Amino acid sequence: MRSLFFIIIFIGLFPSLALADTYTLYFTRHMEKADDKTDPELSLVGKQRAQVLAQVLKNSNIEAIFSTQFKRTQQTAESLANYLGLPVENYPSKDFKGIMTSIKGLKKNALIVGHSNTVSELIKAAGGTAKALEEDEYGDLFQVVVSDDSVVTNRLYIPVVQ
Questions:
Q1: Is residue 87 a contact partner of residue 64, using CB atoms and an 8 Å limit?
Q2: pLDDT, tens digit (0-9, with 9 covering 90-100), for 10-48
Q3: 91 and 125 in contact (C-beta within 8 Å)?
């Protein structure tokens, strides 16, 4: 009975800790392309890096995976989706605020795969910080931890293991 009393007092004094909705959004650009066609597939190196991404995130409690409709973003997301048994949900590549409002509304850990010219904008729309990626930059993974009163952005790297 005494323990229950202290728990009630603790929740009363620190309601933000008891009710905090904290979730993590992971953002990455698609991995290396096979060529410069309009809708290319991933190269062998890109497929390998996508496999490493899946290994890195497999224990991150990902509950949703989002990607644009392009082959390279779909293929980047597929390894993790297959491992977790989750579908890859498409989102429009230019509606940054709209898609992030929808994703943040879920309050779930999620992977969002984008493009060099969209990842930083998506992160900003989620409340995080990120500089624009260069066209030749691959392997960056941004971890955006969202809670009721703060957003923390971490920039990580997914190596190629051959």
A1: no
A2: 444 444 444 468 999 999 999 999 999 999 999 999 999
A3: no
